[in-house]
Specification:
The chain has 336 residues and is α/β, with parallel strands linked by helices. 39% of the residues lie in helices and 23% in strands. The chain is built from 8 helices and 13 strands.
Length: 336
């Protein structure tokens, strides 16, 4: 029920994969995403900054209800109207964004439609890549192999796309790498303006599982975070889209079973590191918290805009009625 109440929010899950049958004990993909989004609703207080007044505001996540609607992108089931849901999350997928498949092309059209009207959208892993590609970026297979295990992203200030491409392809010498690390260290999280990233943490740790990655951001995107393995790990487009390459929705138990299922694809050292890294604490709860804040931020703005339109419409009616009454009085005075 989009926009039906300030306390009821609708989240559309754009599902781009099915969970492997051997992982059924963890639930379906839609259940995994639903549980992840609800982490904040169950356990967290959602804080965000009011961009207009630059002061901190907070709401208990339990003060609102979240409704979910699932769309199967592979079956070309996409929203007929963008505003069917308040927020869309495009999931991961074993497919590549550059695969020439009809459902992927339709999904790109949907992303561009959401972007045109600035509708809230989040992309995760494949979703991160398809958003980049749909909006003019480039996706390719990483020459560094599989990204698996718990990965850590550092926050960055917005960089020129050419700097990112250089860091991704030409950071081969110690001198090049030191320049890149120096740039990252001087551009910390506190300079990022998007208000829903609260609580603010220095790095973002989450489970990864990808071979492809974004190698060039869309022209109007802003880099948020990344690593030496994946320089474009998070980006935003305006205030209505943000994406992340890792899988914050994956529990470590799910990731361990997934890696075991795919172990034949990995080098022995990659697999060993990935499994051992699952002992590290991730920031899944905080990323869920950001999603709730992102949703609340946009719902608040939508209702403010609705109220402004209502005030304008009311004022217009008053002016029209006053003018008509004045004209009527003049006409009556003329006859008298």
């Amino acid at each position: 029920l989009p926009m039906s109440s300030p306390h009821v929010h609708s989240v559309g899950i754009i599902k781009c994969m099915e969970s492997p049958q051997k992982l059924n004990r963890h639930g379906s993909i839609e259940e995994i995403y639903r549980n992840f989004v609800l982490l904040a609703e169950r356990n967290e207080t959602v804080d965000f900054l009011d961009a207009e007044h630059d002061q901190k505001r907070s709401e208990k996540a339990t003060s609102f209800a979240t409704q979910f609607r699932v769309y199967d992108a592979q079956k070309q089931e996409l929203p007929l109207e963008i505003r069917e849901c308040d927020l869309y999350i495009v999931t991961g997928s074993p497919s590549s964004a550059y695969d020439q498949e009809e459902w992927i092309q339709h999904l790109e059209d949907f992303v561009r439609s959401a972007d045109r009207i600035k509708h809230p959208l989040i992309g995760i892993c494949f979703g991160h890549q398809i958003v980049a590609q749909a909006l003019g970026g480039k996706v390719g297979k990483s020459g560094k192999g599989w990204g698996i295990g718990v990965h850590t992203y550092s926050w960055k200030k917005v960089m020129d796309n050419r700097v990112i491409i250089m860091s991704n392809h030409f950071c081969t010498t110690i001198a090049d790498f030191s320049v890149f690390v120096s740039y990252i260290s001087k551009n910390s999280f506190r300079k990022i303006e998007h208000p829903w990233f609260s609580p603010r943490i220095d790095t973002v740790k989450a489970v990864a599982s990808h071979q492809d990655q974004v190698i060039e951001m869309p022209p109007k995107a802003k880099l948020l975070a990344g690593s030496s393995f994946c320089p474009i790990g998070m980006f935003a487009v305006g205030e209505h889209i943000w994406t992340i390459q890792t899988h914050p929705e994956f529990t470590t138990e799910f990731a361990k079973d997934l890696y075991s299922l795919r172990s034949h694809r990995f080098a022995d050292n990659e697999y060993k590191y990935a499994v051992e890294s699952l002992n590290f604490q991730t920031d899944a709860g905080i990323v869920s918290h950001w999603i709730a804040s992102f949703l609340l931020y946009h719902r608040k703005n939508q209702y403010c805009q609705t109220e402004k339109l209502h005030v304008i419409a009311t004022g217009f009616r008053v002016v029209v009625m006053s003018t008509l009454m004045m004209l009527l009085c003049r006409r009556l005075g003329h006859f008298i």
